[in-house]
Structures are given as C-alpha cells and as structure tokens.
Amino acid sequence: MLTRLAIRAEAERAFAAFRATGAAEVEADLLLPAGTLLDLYGEDIRAQAYVTHDPDRGEMMLRPDFTVPVVQAHMLHGADPARYCYMGEVFRQEDEAPQTLQVGYEIFDRSAPQEADAEVFALFRDALQGLPVTPVTGDIGILMAAVKGLETTERRKSALLRHIWRPARFRALLDRFSGRAPVAPARAALLQHLASGTASDLIAAAGPLIGLRDEAEIAARAEALLEDAATPPIPAIAAAMLYDLLQLQAPARAALSHLQAIAPHLPAIAPAVATFAQRLDALDRRGVATEALPFEASLGRASMEYYDGFVFSFRHGTQTIATGGRYDALTEVLGRGASIPAVGGILRPHLMAELRGPK
C-alpha cells in the first residue's frame, strides 16, 4: 500500500538532488490571486483549480502549480541567471488525487537557452533513474513559427495561435482556413444574411440589444466574419506541410532531418529548426542518446498554455511522471515587458513511489 511517507521520501530524494545543483529553494503562497491565472489561461482554469473568495483580496485560487508564482517572484527581484527548486502541494480538480505533492526545478538564463534545456532534461532523467519511464520530447516553437509564417490574414494566424493548446479546435480551424472543410450551413446562412445589408440596418431590424456587446462591437464582429469569408484559403502546399508537422513522431535525429527537408516549404520554421538542432547537440553532450530519443511535434499541446518551445515528458504507460518545457513568453507577460528565457519542469512523487513499489 502506497503511504504518505513513501511519497514524501521520493519527493525529498529528488528535491535534494535539485538543491545540490546550487538552485535556490523557493516557497510559494498557497493562495494565489485568481485574476492573474484567469488572465493567462481564461475561464477554462476554473474547471481545473479550486476557487475561493477572500473578503479583502477578492477571488483567490489554491495553488494549481508553482511556475506562475516562481516567475512572478523572479521577475520582481531575481538574479540573472538564476536556478530555483521547490517542493509542495498543488491542487487540481482534474487529477486523480486533487491534492498532490510536486517537486520542481526552473532555470532563468539568457546566455545559452539550448544548454539550459539540456540541463533540465538531464536532471530529470537522473532523478527518475531506476524507474520504468520513457522520455519523449517536442518543440511547440516549431509549430508556432509555422503558423506565424502562413500566407493568410493576421486574424486567422492569431486564431490558430490562440488554439494551439486546444488540438481539436486548432484542427477544425485549420481545416476551414485551408478549404478542406466546407462552410457549415448555419455559418453560410449567417454570412448570406450579413451580406444582405449594412450591419447597422441588420442590428436595427433585430430589435433591442440583449447582452453585453454594444452596437459597435457587433458591427465589428460582422465585418470580421465577412472579411474572413472573402479570404483565400491557406496555400495548399503550406497547409499540407502543417498537417505533416502536426503528425510528426520519430526519433529526434530523424525528426530533425524531416524538418530540415520540409523547411523550404515552410521557411518561417528554419530558425526554430536550427534551435532544435542546437538543442540535440547540447543533449548529446549530456549523455542523452538523441538518435533514439522520441520526438512528437504535438507534445505539450494539451498542457497549460505557457510552453512555447522545448517540451518534454517522462511516461509510464498512460501516466505522466514528469513534465516540463520552455516558457519564454510567460516571463514577458508576468514581467510587464521585461523578459528572460526560462525553462523548467515538475516531478510527481506519488507516481514515482507507485513505480518504485513497496520497500
């Protein structure tokens, strides 16, 4: 039977290894302002976190993870470069155990991001040594670069970028924007109606306004829908390469060769592919066999929405024992314009203890 002592022992062992690197130990508040998390993740976070109301501080959430408070603290008064480690409880409704112990490690370093990626991955590999886990890596930055380079409107690119972390919605948008999916009958009827008169005429004919949107917002939305309907499809070759990228799963070095081959058709990904190659070299220097290291281009797209580059997981079957990645853009959001490259990850000691088995 798994005991809290066994879980704590796994956590303490990993935490000691993280501290041995010289990382500073971090304590994060248990209650966090809900506004910050809602701004980052939208209302979806309510279905995952535990929300409460403080009479003085307003809406608060029990800590759903450590990364956001660690980034906030670093952007206020952190050194450059800096390494942090932490251990504590997190609270997520979607987990089997809604209150779980986590151990994590974060690097803030602008001098050599690919070396930092490799350092974090190797540190987690070593922490999981002896456990039956399989690593897998990815790079959301390549997919983001591909979307940003598409020959289409900024509005369409923004919609795709916004839904990268919602794979089904992303695929539906890509199908529509590339012309692979027909216009839904309800949408076609709406577009025909909007084209039959000015937005002001149609709003007036509809009767009194109901809801929070005013007439200007409704008119702007109508214009956006008509503009989108008149936009040509994403070029077929670029769309085909993007579909190919979404499905790419291969050993990392083979994946690199494939990405280098399709880069002429998606030239915007070339810098991200070069970064991928540099990261593989850095991983090789840390004893990671990148010829066999699994790579999945879509890894991390169902995670919280702050990873924007290298991502990794260590799995046992369907269980994710450890996960992490790069989140450079998050530091700019929480740093109010200031930013620093950052990468980190977390271990789940209760799953590690299960794999370790009874003593």
From TrEMBL:
<feature type="binding site">
    <location>
        <position position="92"/>
    </location>
    <ligand>
        <name>L-histidine</name>
    </ligand>
</feature>
<feature type="domain" description="Class II Histidinyl-tRNA synthetase (HisRS)-like catalytic core">
    <location>
        <begin position="11"/>
        <end position="225"/>
    </location>
</feature>
<dbReference type="InterPro" id="IPR045864">
    <property type="entry name" value="aa-tRNA-synth_II/BPL/LPL"/>
</dbReference>
<dbReference type="GO" id="GO:0004821">
    <property type="term" value="F:histidine-tRNA ligase activity"/>
</dbReference>
<feature type="binding site">
    <location>
        <position position="102"/>
    </location>
    <ligand>
        <name>L-histidine</name>
    </ligand>
</feature>
<feature type="binding site">
    <location>
        <begin position="65"/>
        <end position="67"/>
    </location>
    <ligand>
        <name>L-histidine</name>
    </ligand>
</feature>
<dbReference type="Pfam" id="PF13393">
    <property type="entry name" value="tRNA-synt_His"/>
</dbReference>
<feature type="binding site">
    <location>
        <position position="106"/>
    </location>
    <ligand>
        <name>L-histidine</name>
    </ligand>
</feature>
<keyword id="KW-0808">Transferase</keyword>
<protein>
    <submittedName>
        <fullName>ATP phosphoribosyltransferase regulatory subunit</fullName>
    </submittedName>
</protein>
<feature type="binding site">
    <location>
        <position position="301"/>
    </location>
    <ligand>
        <name>L-histidine</name>
    </ligand>
</feature>
<dbReference type="GO" id="GO:0005737">
    <property type="term" value="C:cytoplasm"/>
</dbReference>
<feature type="binding site">
    <location>
        <begin position="306"/>
        <end position="307"/>
    </location>
    <ligand>
        <name>L-histidine</name>
    </ligand>
</feature>
<feature type="domain" description="Class II Histidinyl-tRNA synthetase (HisRS)-like catalytic core">
    <location>
        <begin position="229"/>
        <end position="345"/>
    </location>
</feature>
<keyword id="KW-0328">Glycosyltransferase</keyword>
<dbReference type="InterPro" id="IPR041715">
    <property type="entry name" value="HisRS-like_core"/>
</dbReference>
<dbReference type="InterPro" id="IPR004516">
    <property type="entry name" value="HisRS/HisZ"/>
</dbReference>
<dbReference type="GO" id="GO:0006427">
    <property type="term" value="P:histidyl-tRNA aminoacylation"/>
</dbReference>
<dbReference type="GO" id="GO:0016757">
    <property type="term" value="F:glycosyltransferase activity"/>
</dbReference>
